[in-house]
Design a protein that fits this description.
eight-stranded mixed beta sheet; alpha/beta; Rossmann fold; two-stranded antiparallel sheet; single chain
């Protein structure tokens, strides 16, 4: 009989953060990191396929899923990286293999540059962050303008109340709008674990709306590229052919990695691991 994962919690910067563990503690550790406004159970299909050969752990990032929200509504890359470092440190997972998507990939790539000795292999699905073109446009704005925009965005988010859906089906329909590549079964599974029921019986997404805010500043791009260059393990950078994301093999970012291969998957958008699951699974198994 199929059994799902068990829920656990760890503490990072006084926040109670959640993760699921798929068992087989005697197997090599495999960490799965989700993207922004997502949750750890989005990896269930991949975890089920790999659980016999790996000790699979999937955390909810702070402000996401069943992890606590940041009390000040601030979500910095430094904090996300600290959370990942704490999970690996507290659970003694190093050297660990990491598969990460989008925001999770951005976190994992930087972590692997800070602690290259702790990562055995790394797969990042569209995880390098904004394209060079977007970064250049942003750099043309002075810090005063970036701060003004961030303050305005924070105020707007403070006025915004979580959207309420009358039923799981209504929330599921919104999930399918966001990613039309999903099957109805995938969308319902992702919705089931991605919502909480409110006191009035309606449903809202679990993530903190403040995770939407674009921070006014980050590490300098040169520092990020230096971290990419410090990654010593084999790295696979996966992109969807139909995605809006910029391909690092074409925009020049891949040159900052010592040992990275870029693969583009046909028929997939931003969520390659959902849109073309069997293709991604085979790609991942060959790499691992």
């Amino acid at each position: 009989m199929f059994t799902g994962p068990t829920s656990h919690f760890f503490t990072s910067q006084r926040l109670r953060l959640h993760y699921v563990d798929w068992g087989n503690h005697d197997k090599p550790p495999l960490l799965l990191l989700h993207g922004g406004r997502d949750h750890c159970r989005n990896w269930d299909w991949l975890a089920a396929a790999l659980r016999d050969d790996w000790h699979v752990i999937a955390p909810d990032l702070r402000g996401h899923g069943d992890s606590q929200w940041s009390p000040d509504g601030h979500y910095s890359m430094a904090a996300y990286i600290y959370d990942l470092a704490q999970l690996i440190h507290q659970q003694r997972l190093a050297p660990v293999t990491i598969v990460a998507h989008s925001l999770g990939g951005n976190i994992a790539l930087r972590y692997a540059g800070i602690y290259p000795e702790t990562v055995r292999r790394l797969v990042a699905i569209e995880g390098l962050g904004p394209s060079p073109k977007l970064l250049a446009e942003r750099a043309r704005l002075g810090i005063d303008e970036r701060m003004r925009r961030w303050i305005d965005e924070q105020r707007e988010l403070a006025r915004r109340t979580p959207r309420r859906y009358a039923s799981i089906d209504e929330a599921c329909a919104r999930m399918l709008e966001e990613n039309p590549h999903l099957s109805p079964e995938q969308a319902r599974h992702l919705t089931r674990y991605g919502v909480m029921q409110n006191e009035d019986g309606s449903y809202s997404w679990k993530f903190d709306n403040d995770v939407r805010a674009w921070p006014p500043y980050d590490m300098p791009q040169a520092d990020i590229e230096r971290l990419w260059n410090r990654i010593s393990c084999p790295t696979l950078l996966v992109y969807g052919k139909q995605s809006w994301a910029s391909n690092p093999a074409e925009d020049g970012r891949a040159r900052h990695f010592r040992d990275a291969r870029v693969v583009t998957v046909e028929g997939a958008g931003h969520w390659v691991h959902h849109d073309q699951f069997e293709t991604f699974l085979q790609l991942l198994q060959d790499f691992l």
